């Protein structure tokens, strides 16, 4: 049984609007370009495919794509964009489920898990399970790509547990931290057309890049590269996020 939140119909129905900035071509374009290059003509599997923000344009670019998704309402939103025979999706836990697609497990050239979703499972064991399941899906030489924010605990003064990360006319976002358990809750207040606010809380286990590297080693993967974004900006101590590429050895 996964500890991750299972997003309901209301969250799924509003997801694309609430995350509209992440659907912008300036965000999606470099992401799709990098993933298509890493797929290198082979099939790809997205863990936590959601409403298809990246999977749909990646498929439209010519890369065969399948997905795994825990939330049935999110799959319903995806189905409004593409048919099941175009992008097959397994409803299940990305740490254990098999992808249902034209290629069998062990034959994917690319598995990707993006937009901080590695933090959705609330235990380290389940996060390790995501790496193990990714490695199980990959062909020798295949790549597992993880996009994740770097925990920003430097903004948290001693004794303070909450930090705002966005305050605009349409959205107020606050992260609340539990450092002892390495957990955070992101609280979102989204302004509605009638002027009211709708609240959405998401729960996460934040994870450091070095910890992800150890998870990869447990799964038999090795870090190939790490950049600060999809365009390849060098990763530094001041980077707020990272795109990490792990590789299954070709001679596995």
From TrEMBL:
Signal peptide start and end residues: none
Annotated Pfam families: Methyltransf_25 (PF13649)
GO biological process assignments: methylation
Domain of life: Bacteria
Record keyword Cytoplasm present: no
Domain Methyltransferase: residue ranges: 46-142
CDD domains associated with the record: AdoMet_MTases (cd02440)
SUPFAM superfamilies: S-adenosyl-L-methionine-dependent methyltransferases
Keywords tagged on the record: Methyltransferase, Transferase
Listed InterPro entries: Methyltransf_25 (IPR041698), SAM-dependent_MTases_sf (IPR029063)
Gene Ontology MF terms: methyltransferase activity
Name assigned to this protein: Class I SAM-dependent methyltransferase
